[in-house]
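agent> Task received from the user: take the single chain below, predict its 3D structure, and emit structure tokens. No templates, no multimer pairing.
agent> Plan: (1) validate residues, (2) run structure prediction, (3) serialize to tokens, (4) report one or two observations.
agent> Step 1 OK, no nonstandard residues flagged.
tool_call: predict_structure(input=
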Amino acid sequence: MFDTLSDRLSGIFGKLRGKGRLTDADIDATAREIRLALLEADVALPVVKSFIARIKERARGSEVSQALNPAQQVIKIVHEELVAVLGGEQRRLRFAKQPPTVIMLAGLQGSGKTTLAGKLSSWLKAQGHQPLLVAADLQRPNAVGQLQVLGGRAGVEVFAPEPGNGVGDPVAVAKASLEHARRTARDIVIVDTAGRLGIDAEMMAQAAAIRDAVDPDEVIFVIDAMVGQDAVRTAEAFRDGVGITGVVLSKLDGDARGGAALSVRQVTGEPILFASTGEKLSDFDVFHPDRMASRILGMGDVLTLIEQAEQAFDADQKEKMTAKLMGGEQFTLEDFLDQLIAVRRMGPIANVLAMMPGMGQMKDQLAEVDDKHFDKVTAIIRSMTPGERTNPKIINGSRRARIANGSGVTVMDVNQLLNRFAEAQKMMKQMGGMMGLPGGGRRKATKSPKNKRKGTKGGRGGGARPRTGGQLPAGFPGGMPQLPPGLDPNALGGGGGLPPGFKLPKIDFNKLNKRKDED
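)
tool_result: status=success, residues=519
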């Protein structure tokens, strides 16, 4: 959604980086370009005016004039002010002292309230809660049925005593749901309310009546991030008419300009609590202003990437791989398949890579990355016998033909996978040596002067690591799009602005990335 704005800001900052000192004219020109970029992104004019005023005031201060790198200091100021516009610090849900906690969803028809209700219930259930979905949207055709389907997918009970489609009293349903929640020990009640195509008195009166009946702890306004400034005006109307306490941005995966997302917090004064990016129940996360600001400025989103990796790589898998490496055992195709599947659980690989710092400048290359190649690799490995996965050296010509036929690929694809996987095994041994693990590559690196002569120029001798040339992890078949140069997974492991004491997943995620860029 913010691609156009990110590209404009990256171009603006690129012009600054070559300057050793910034004049007032430089600051004015930069502020003018940022203003135009924000207005083109459909950010509300009052927000743009205050944002630019703060940037110009700080850029003319001592923190820039006395900085060793003024351009970087200006970027830092823009980042901090962007975080402030988006809400500053993350605000969590407020829970009732005495359950159940009542969360009421409000918004226009088509904004994604019902889908959001299912996503929120799934997220809360994963947090250890017992939510109850309440079908109080009795106006829209099949709204009750849609909520029941979403509740079934999330494994959450749906309270729907009325059939909907214009039949039933939503206020009575909402009120009865509280007693049902207490009786069935549900600690959170999520009330899905009806919307309209536009603001009208009847909708506001119904929303206010439901609010008065259930006395919600949170009234969350669901805003369609693709609508633009009209969504911000609608949010203000709901704030004044119903009294919202928070906002959820839906459809952030769209291709709209995204100005509503940058405006809603400052215009309404209410925090953004969650962000929804797709149709799946898992396409939902807590909104972090600092992370969103970093994405907009092309700085990546390392913390979200780490969190997704921790969820994708389960504890048993991490312990198994750590024990295998500590014991000096060989990395097998079975291990590679397990980790490939885990990476796929993190979502489209292009989206995963886009969270890495610096990748915003390489959108064209990322667009060429096709997840179907991962499916091809998975099919090839699954066409092998357990013995072949453990010891690929036994795979002769006839076996390769059988594997190719079984996976629907060519023998050349199988050959390329096996050749690159052999390189990956060598790299894993060298990584084990660098980590002080048994079976590593230390002896090999100093085995004899003869090995050094086989290295490339610049003294890269010894264990002569194979150059991957910025490719995806070793083992992918030929024709795989090249990853952009400069991708540094080491930024995930200590730098990159991680908070003190924050640890990456032990071995799995780092290992997958280091196979890309170990040399």
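agent> Step 4: summary for the user.
Strands lie at 101-106, 131-135, 157-159, 188-192, 218-224, 246-250, 272-276, 284-286.
agent> Done.
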